[in-house]
# Entry
Amino acid sequence: MHALTIDALSKNFAAASGHRIQALDCVSLSIGKGELVAVLGASGCGKSTLLRMVAGFETADAGTIRLGDRLLSGPDTHVPPETRKVGIVFQSYALWPHMDVAGNVGYALAVAGHDKATQRARVAAALESVDLAGFETRKPAELSGGQRQRVALARCLAMDPALVLLDEPLANLDIHLRASMLESFAAFHAKTQATMLYVTHDQAEAMALADRIAVLEAGRLLQFADPRTLYREPDNEAVARFVGRGMVLDARVVACDGGAAQVEIFGAAATVRAAPARAPGACKLVLRAENLAPAADGFAVRVAHAAYIGGAWEIAAVPLAEPGTTLRAVLGDGPRPQSGDTLRLAPRDGWVLPN
# Structure
């Protein structure tokens, strides 16, 4: 049985103009026990609405939400947030500034009526799980941003939730602390094996942490897969462009043998990956900057710009066969490529989008 099952969930809101805005459009997800699933998308894609509906803060227009075999949301059913056994970690931490760490972590336990001994034991265990044992008497103002976020996580875990929801938990941290907290979240998940739904607009976070990623756009689920599959084998053009800044180019499949496709692009031949049954004909080819390399038998491009990215040059280049297109390619750590230089590039990998 799945820990969380979302089936055909839909939600719309009234706009100021009087029209209805479709925030979620028939979204379905099944999350296994102990799995960390990221919901990824740009602002306004519906990811926060999805989290709020799982938490119980919003009601569904259609569809169902189940936690294990328990129906949380469905026709004529809406279980209130406080009885869902779902924990939430907000990006703003939401800590009481006048309480110490132990008081913040144990607050919900006290409200729920647990005795003092149970509160102390659960608070200690939760702080141990986020590596904050010994911080019980500190106030939030005495903690770093990362430590405050871990206190918020400990507070959530102290209630022993069946599901942990994380609403862009690293959004308020600087880039260096964010990298450190990514490691902390990954270690925490490995230690506790908690079931988590992690909402973010940052694909680097999602790729680094998640077992699987659900990509949303305009309220629709575009693809639900593990990070490597999303990156290497996107289902559609929207996912290809969003995840890893993929370039989607017109090409032609000449022949396909198993998963290897012979394609023609900008007048040059290349071998890329494709679904085994891909038929010859016009196609959309997904390339990433690291897929293009200098090659004598490649297609000709003119360098438009070069930027040093540490150990390599990333160039913007225009194919001579199609001046209206701009490509990105990562070259070696040699002399700076000059604007106006002509060179030849060939794909060393790529993915033909399914029809």
About this structure: The mean pLDDT is 92. The CA atoms of residues 296 and 344 lie 6 Å apart.
